[in-house]
Amino acid sequence: MQTTPRVIILVLNWNGWHDTLDCLASLYAGSYRDFQVVLIDNASEDASLQRIREWAERGAAPAPPPGHAAASAPLPYLEYDRTTAEAGGIPEREARLAGELPTGVSHPLVIIQSGGNLGFAGGNNVGLRYAGRRGAEYVLLLNNDASMRSAEALGHLVRFLELTPRAGACGARLFYPDGAPQICYGNFPAPGRALAYLFPVYKLLPGVLFRTARRSNVVPDASCTEPLAVDYPSGACLLVRSRAIAQVGLLDERFFMYAEETDWCLRLRRQGWDSYYVPQSEVVHKGGGSSGTSGEPLNRRFTESLFKYYAKHFSPGAFRLVAAGYLVRSLYGIAHWSLRARLVSSSERGLMRARARYWRACLELAAGALLAPSGAGTGGSEALLPGREPS
Questions:
Q1: Per-residue pLDDT tens over the stretch 250-265
Q2: Which residue windows are coiled coil (predicted)?
Q3: For helices 316-343 and 296-313, angle between their N-to-C axes, nearest 10 degrees
């Protein structure tokens, strides 16, 4: 009898139970069966845990995506605190629930209370420690505001990794709820790309000169229908080989939100693993489901994570060059948007001031980087190798 690889699916929730239930419904309606969902709750304050328990006990899901059938039988679940989960849970309890599973469900739902808002990396690391002790061949990191667009979405990712031994990770084709394509993968940050973003003088030159340039973030063309080797797939839906995780370590928790999958895939690359974009797997991603924020705070978090990435992976000289670029660009941005705020109508003034505040935040980051002692804030991923925890 042919067996399928076991997949542990990590879904991180923080004050987003509406999206989370849609995500869970799409997973249990899929055609790939040998998976276990591990729901990590980062100390939600919106009754998320109660809502998720009620959903599992009722066996009634929100309206599933087109082509999916909603489950009707109760779904057995177990709850662990962080310490128990990171030790691998209680396998005996999970085994006892095997006889209560609905048809087509291979494993009970596991709910982990992390005990605090640990961020994307910290929360998922709790799940990764659990998964590492349970022997699954693959781990899927899936945003709680993402759902499978088709029943075969997970199966496509698993089959690709099964057929591609050197692939350590792969990601899906992402769509917005209205069907518009979304950024699916990117190229590793580099000093030149960072400076081109800050000072886009290339826009004044003929486009033919940059025809082969690699963009930081890519929305794939619809003509791309075969798997493609990329620097890093989007972390909204990222399937990773457990053997690769054991080699490179967990997510770096210095990245509270954003850039953690970029850093992870770079570490995979340095250990000889490839990453791929798999367009046959289609996923709907709303965006912002577990961030709990948008606009100005989100932009600041993103830039903070970029600076941490630059400090970790750029040479000291390149890091200081990029920081100097941010300092100069920030001074211009503050002056430009502050002046615009004085000239526009009151209805637009708030947006202009928010942009000026963003550049003030960038100025603080750049000044801090330039004033720090040489080498401060940098560090390789040696602290993340197997057997050691992220700092």
A1: 999 999 888 999 999 9
A2: none
A3: 160
The one-letter amino acid at 271: Q
Task: Look at residue 256 in the predicted model and tell me its pLDDT.
Answer: 85
Q: How many residues does the chain have?
A: 391
CATH class belonging to 7-184+219-285: alpha beta
Q: Which of 224, 302, 233, 318 is nearest to 269 (CA)?
A: 233
Q: 84-126, pLDDT tens digit by residue?
A: 999 999 999 999 998 899 888 999 999 999 999 999 999 999 9
CB atoms within 10 A of CB 165: 10
**Does residue 190 have a pLDDT over 80?**
yes
pLDDT the model gives residue 385: 32
Q: Is the pLDDT of residue 352 over 60?
A: yes
Beta pairing partners, 143: 12
The span from the CA of 341 to the CA of 59, in Å, is 53
Closest by CA to 309, choosing from 239, 368, 233, 257, is 257
Domain-wise residue ranges, the chain: 7-184+219-285, 296-371
Asked whether the beta carbons of 184 and 235 are under 8 A apart, the reply is no
pLDDT mean across residues, the chain: 89
| Radius of gyration for the alpha carbons in the chain, expressed in angstroms and rounded | 22
Answer positive or negative: Cα dihedral of 282, 284, 289, 293: positive
Which contiguous run of DSSP H or E holds residue 197?
helix 191-198
CB atoms within 10 A of CB 129: 18
| 275 exposure class (CB count in 10 Å sphere: 0-12, 13-18, 19+) | buried
Residue written as token pair 């080989």:
241
Decide if pLDDT at 337 tops 90. Answer: yes
Q: State both tokens at 239.
A: 């399937």
